[in-house]
């Protein structure tokens, strides 16, 4: 579908080039290997953008992935190659990923994958889903999520902090003469 569009020009072309420059073949390869570990597909796990696009474009593998993490996440996977059916699969994957704990800011728009506009955000979403997969007893990928570090302070410790003057209020240490700010006044 995207091959029938005119090429972007000017500032739009620069913005698209910046988006494409973020894409990393190694991270995409790691992501496809993780998908293969969970679903048994795809046969080719090369991390180049062409392969990632061809493997994920119809959304069926994405739906299999979330169903492998949590059974029944996507009820109906469309096998049709029609554009709207494929985009329904991608959208069903995105909804299931959000339910599995992927933050909304780490997801992508359906059009980012379908028209190959931003494969970087697709990989980011899959990496985020990979971190959440550990919560469901599945192998995870990417950096480990931070754990909560709750701290408890006594009333005495809290009151001790009220007697400290913050540096935002200035200091009485040192000498203030000779400090100039801006230009001097000429008379």
Q: What this model shows, in words?
A:
The mean pLDDT is 86. With 187 residues, this protein is an all-alpha fold. The chain has helices at residues 11-21, 25-39, 49-56, 60-69, 83-99, 110-114, 119-133, 155-160. It has a single domain (2-136), classed as Orthogonal Bundle (Actin-binding Protein, T-fimbrin, domain 1), CATH 1.10.418. It is 47% helix and 0% strand. Helix 4 packs parallel to helix 5 (83-99). The protein contains 8 helices and no strands. GO terms for molecular function: actin filament binding. This is (diamondback moth) hypothetical protein. InterPro entries: Calponin-like, Calponin_repeat, CH_dom, CH_dom_sf, SM22_calponin. Belongs to the calponin family.
Q: What pattern of helices and strands is seen along the backbone? A: HHHHHHHH
Q: What integer is the average pLDDT? A: 86
Label the CATH architecture: Orthogonal Bundle
> Care to count the β-strands?
0
Work out the radius of gyration: 25 Å
Going by helix content, strand content and strand pairing, the class is mainly alpha
> Which ranges are low-confidence, i.e. pLDDT below 50, for 5 or more consecutive residues?
none
Tally the structural domains.
1
CATH superfamily: Calponin-like domain
Distance between the termini: 72 Å
Number of helices: 8
Percentage of residues in helical conformation: 40-55%
Tell me the major beta sheet: none
What is the CATH topology assignment?
Answer: Actin-binding Protein, T-fimbrin, domain 1
Query: Based on CA inertia axes, which overall geometry fits?
Result: flat
What is the highest CATH level, the class? Mainly Alpha
Strand content: under 5%
InterPro entries: Calponin-like, Calponin_repeat, CH_dom, CH_dom_sf, SM22_calponin
Family: Belongs to the calponin family.
GO molecular function, one term: actin filament binding
Protein name: (diamondback moth) hypothetical protein
